[in-house]
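Catalogue entry: protein

Sequence with per-residue tokens
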Amino acid sequence: MRFRRRGHGAAKMKAVVSEESCRKGGNGKNGVSARLRRVPGALLCLFACLMAVAVHCAAAARAVPQRIVSCGPAITEKLYLLGVEKNIAGVTVYCQRPYEAREKPKVGSVTQINVEKVAALRPDLVLATSLTDPCSVRRLKSLRLRVVVFKEPKSFEEMNEQFVEMGRLTGKEHVALEIVRASRKQVGHIRAGVKKLTRPRVFIQVGANPLFTASKESLFNDFLEFSGGINVAQDSKGGFYSREQVLTGNPDIILIVAMEGPVADREKTRWQRFDTVKAVRDRAVYVMDPYKMCSPTPVSFVEALETVANLLHPGRGKGGEQ
């Protein structure tokens, strides 16, 4: 009877110890087994996390457009500047810069886009401008194509904001931000260099028939302001101007935005009849590159601004120093 009681006590003690080991996850066989059972669960959790990250990365990669159609020269130049030229599926016939853009498939002009050609290229992003025919934009959207329209920027800062937005759309926001940062720094350097110089009066011509100029609400005005000049036509309504008004304003300098050639030569000759204008008497009538002035990138804006500053302040050193 004692042996049975002793055996019963030992069995009871063993049961208590086993229960305590399981409860505390002790060093016994049951504790080890419990820990081993938890290992596959941890690995499964880690695997699930890795899979989630992989899926997120794949989705992000798919979100970056692989086939882009550009509906404007400025847009094409900016895409090349961002480094996504391999993703450009089509451009307009006026997209001539950089030179490589001429080899891209053509989808129409700046104002008239061939919707069928665009659709045939199977783009996942179409970048249009305010000059793109609104009907064409609506048709493209009706085909469930992603279309983003960029308006004509009215200032240097608005141009930079659009460039960063284009970088975001193409997965190159970090590149865009770095380019804009460098551009702002260079522009600031030029402005500081001309700040204390005499400000000449300038008339900028961007159209001939009828005569068209730059009001204070245009990107052209920033070229004049930043280079240390005074826009004699800054208060013009809508940009339309007359030669009589130019005579009254009597600018020190006239800038003609036109391609070098017959058109530019004709306009320079036409101004020679107005020899009472100081700019004409001083032979200060110059032709400016329309690509850099009309549709600049953050980089070409700085290049054009440097040129304008040198024309307004002959003899100034590079970067704005006399």
